[in-house]
Write a structure and sequence with these properties.
- There is one protein chain.
- By secondary structure, the chain is α+β, with helices and mostly antiparallel strands.
- It has one domain (about 10-90).
- The protein has helices at about 30-35, 40-50, 80-85; strands at about 15-20, 25-30, 60-65, 90.
- Strands 3-1-2-4 form a four-stranded antiparallel β-sheet.
- Strand 1 and strand 2 (about 25-30) form a beta hairpin.
């Protein structure tokens, strides 16, 4: 049982898959207010994260909102950058 001071807050950010021209994808989390503004805002956030080295370089072709909540909790032992920089290559 977790004590009240040890409870983790629910992460309210929304997970998006960032699609690259070469078939790779990466994942970014954004605040609901940004997600509500449209994909162009999410793409802008993804490009900022590319500049900071948080997601891989490459030509971004689009973003897609994840069907599920990202499920990460604040204070999780896995940092958000570790969890979200996972890139995958689609099978040919």
């Amino acid at each position: 049982m977790a004590y009240p001071s040890q409870r983790r807050l629910r992460d309210t950010h929304i997970l998006f898959a960032v699609r690259y021209q070469d078939g790779r994808s990466a994942y970014v989390r954004v605040a609901p207010a940004i997600a509500d503004d449209g994909d162009y805002r999410v793409i802008a956030i993804a490009r900022e994260q590319q500049e900071r080295g948080e997601i891989p370089d490459g030509t971004i072709t689009g973003v897609k909102r994840s069907a599920d909540h990202c499920g990460f909790s604040r204070g999780s032992s896995v940092s958000s950058s570790e969890a979200l920089i996972r890139s995958s290559r689609r099978a040919p």
